[in-house]
Amino acid sequence: MTHVADIAEGYLLRNDTSELAGVNREVVVFEHALADLAALDDAHLARIIERAAKAGPMHYNLSVVEPDDEGGYGHWVQGLLARPGEKVNGWEVLELIRAGRLWLQVEHLHELAPDLYWLMRAAYDEFKRRVAHFTYFNLYTNLLISGPTAKVTPHIDVAEVLLFHIRGHKKFTLWDPAKFPVPDEWRESIILREQLEDVPLKPEWLSQGTEAVLGPGQGVSFPLMWPHAVENLGELNVSLQSEYHHPASIRRYAALYANGLLRRRLGMNPHSTGPGAWGEALRAVAGLAAKKLKVHSPKPRKVALSFVVDARAEGGVRWLPEKERMLVTK
Ligand SMILES: [Fe+2]
Known about the structure:
Layout: H1 17-20, E1 28-31, H2 34-37, H3 42-55, E2 60-66, E3 75-80, H4 90-99, E4 103-106, H5 109-112, H6 114-130, E5 137-146, E6 151-155, E7 160-167, E8 170-174, H7 184-191, E9 210-214, E10 218-221, E11 228-232, E12 237-245, H8 247-266, H9 280-292, E13 302-309, E14 317-319, E15 326-329
Parallel strand pairs: 3-13
Antiparallel strand pairs: 1-10, 2-3, 2-4, 4-5, 5-12, 6-11, 7-10, 7-12, 8-9, 8-11, 13-14, 13-15
Helix pairs in contact: 3-4, 7-8, 8-9
Bound molecules: fe (ii) ion (FE2).
């Protein structure tokens, strides 16, 4: 892998600066050099999978989407790469992912794959140098490795997102809240950790969003808290995904947090905190203060790990009996 210090300035993002100007304000598909520089071939992926398995389930999310009874997008079920004490063969797991619907997110890249973390930091720094309004803090990076039929159900991320696609093809569907209004209560419950990020969009909206197909060397940015879904298009997919904040996203996050508390604690029906809405900054100060004072202490979110990867089981997924399921806080 190329050492980050050797990357020429301006090399990581291949678009003209004018084409990057809409980053985090509109849907922007851009071209990047990370697919070449990250050298995420099968051997590299297998090593990272083994490191993640050894580090344990707090360092990764492994999921499949199980179909719903009434149709629709289905629902997430989480599992384990290995049971405690078991050793994992990264190549074997990679083949199982390639064969089916497993979706693996390796977290904490600054620990498990620092080269990838620093490569992403370099791309962020290039955005910052070239796009006047762009800034970032609280950068969180992860590596997504998912199967040809894996998909991510419609959801809202509470931070800004930049995804650098590396291998395979995937389709993003994004729903502009101006056309497909999503109640603030949904965003508040996600921020207050009362529910997972999934959002129940109207079934007729599912085919009406804006679509963006990404191939290797392409990336996507979209406005904060836009609902989106992702479908892999028939190959092993590898992406470097990241989340971050900047002052405006923190204001929006904190304002929603404050409104959520007003609604729940005082039975109030606060005005919308739509971006730029009047009073958002003030509300945000209250939200940040409340968060610091721990006014709201949500129950930790417990997630059951219901399966373990097993080459001998159908689809590589061996379901665990109820009493063997591990409960983790995520
Ligand atoms: Fe997302």
